[in-house]
Amino acid sequence: GITRHYKFEIKLQNVTRLCHTKSMVTVNGKFPGPRIVAREGDRLLIEVVNHVSNNISIHWHGIRQLRSGWADGPAYITQCPIQTGQSYVYNYTIIGQRGTLFWHAHISWLRSTLYGPIIILPKHGVPYPFAKPYKEFPILFGEWWNSDTEAVIAQALQTGGGPNVSDAYTMNGLPGPLYNCSTKDTLKLKVKPGRTYLLRLVNAALNDELFFSIANHTLKIVDVDAIYVKPFETNTLLIAPGQTTNVLLQTKPHYPNATFFMLARPYVTGQGTFDNSTVAGILEYETSSLISTKNLPIYKPNLPPLNDTSFATNFTNKLRSLANSQFPANVPQNIDKKFLFTVGLGTNPCNQKNQTCQGPNGTMFAASINNISFVMPNTALLQAHYSGQSKGVYSPFFPNQPLIPFNYTGNPPNNTMVGNGTKLEVLPFNTTVELILQDTSILGAESHPLHLHGFNFFVVGQGFGNFDPNKDPPSFNLVDPVERNTVGVPAGGWVAIRFRADNPGVWFMHCHLEVHTSWGLKMAWLVLDGKLPNQKLLPPPADLPKC
Ligand code: C2O
């Protein structure tokens, strides 16, 4: 591989959408931010310079960061934030991954404007396991707020209620013609008839899983989270925040005398308010300048109903690893440690003196894993661990059972309160882990896209209701389960994942719905060094930010 250099200047830029102009934090003045293009095996040196008043950190979502945990990016987990006027060089090598990932800010809600694609091409001379596409397009889904998202979340955390929902969804930053004052901000894909295109889809939205479809065209799924899958065709796909999906789009053999909407709108399982609007882009066939595309009919795809859980289940069940000799699925077969973690919403006591909190029954909203709502430390966990100064920063005793015994199918408990703390689950190097993530209905069941830093995992099973340790494991798929970094825990159900803890460091795991992360649906794993020199975390770089 080669070394590729990027420079990310974090600066303010005025951006206008829906006839609202706001000054927002950007990388190099671009929204969405710049693309990173590299090949498997390349080393990336990305210098991030902070010219704004916010603290900044950037995460390379899905990059394994083997032994390079200092470059992972979540603020207060692997690094202190980059403060105003300071800079930090993220230094890592892409090992064993090719496909689409993305980078985003990993502090507060700044990822609403700081995100961009990471395109990882195979090594030179190595083909895709499908015919070479004629052209490739990244499409990033996002959310647009007319107001400043830092104010949105600050207000929500202060009052304990749900945050204001976004004003629009976007594709590559563009809301499209179904919103007021937005027709000129429409993503247009210009295609030729009879060709194959590779669309690299990224869900960078803050709070919504999305359905996506293109009218009168089928999509062939070939890759998720930068891992090839057994190809299959679908009219609509589901993509959760934190997930990426590569699809092949085969265009019509002849010029079709129509243009086609590409639509995305949310899949909703929770009870709260949400943005129920639809982002539209246009698939337009290029033609000679003699024929006008102006008055062509526009076809619209039919998207599933907002709460179509059976679509979601069928779709995710179809995702399978290639699991062939070139791309084997190394599913851990013998498990050293089994965990069951509940994930869900709960409450904290109101901390305001004279006002009522806006959470349920005058409380503050909280969210938890095993009933622990994670409290962000004020120094970075990885630095505390590495320097041996963890005392007072974190506890290495993560509760292995939920504190409130919980029966999903029963009535919700009267006590919705969570515990709070900064607790880590410690794993010796190379531990094989099976983790059941069980959704709770304490404040209503909801699908949670759980993201694990530092690893890919295999999704070996999923189901509804309570996980049954006797009945469910025999049906696990240990042959060709999909391998990924973000998985939707089904609303009112569970998902089983397996991974090998072969990457020393501190690795964040959290719901990729930003509001749930803010409420505490997050925790971290501490993976210890192995005995051999190449099983140890590398030393911290000299420019690592200080808190
Ligand atoms: Cu994409 Cu911890 O995040």
Automatic annotation (TrEMBL):
EC id: 1.10.3.2
GO terms classed as biological process: lignin catabolic process
Family of this protein: Belongs to the multicopper oxidase family.
The species this protein was found in: Cucurbita moschata
Entry's cofactor comment: Binds 4 Cu cations per monomer.
Pfam family name, one: Cu-oxidase_2
Reported function: Lignin degradation and detoxification of lignin-derived products.
Keyword Oxidoreductase listed: yes
Residue ranges of domain Plastocyanin-like in the record: 11-123, 136-287, 403-529
GO CC entries: apoplast
This protein's UniProt keywords: Apoplast, Copper, Glycoprotein, Lignin degradation, Metal-binding, Oxidoreductase, Repeat, Secreted, Signal
Name of the protein this chain belongs to: Laccase
Record localization: Secreted, Extracellular space, Apoplast
One function term, GO molecular function aspect: hydroquinone:oxygen oxidoreductase activity
Co-factor requirement: Cu cation
Enzyme class label: oxidoreductase
Family annotation (Gene3D superfamilies): Cupredoxins - blue copper proteins (2.60.40.420)
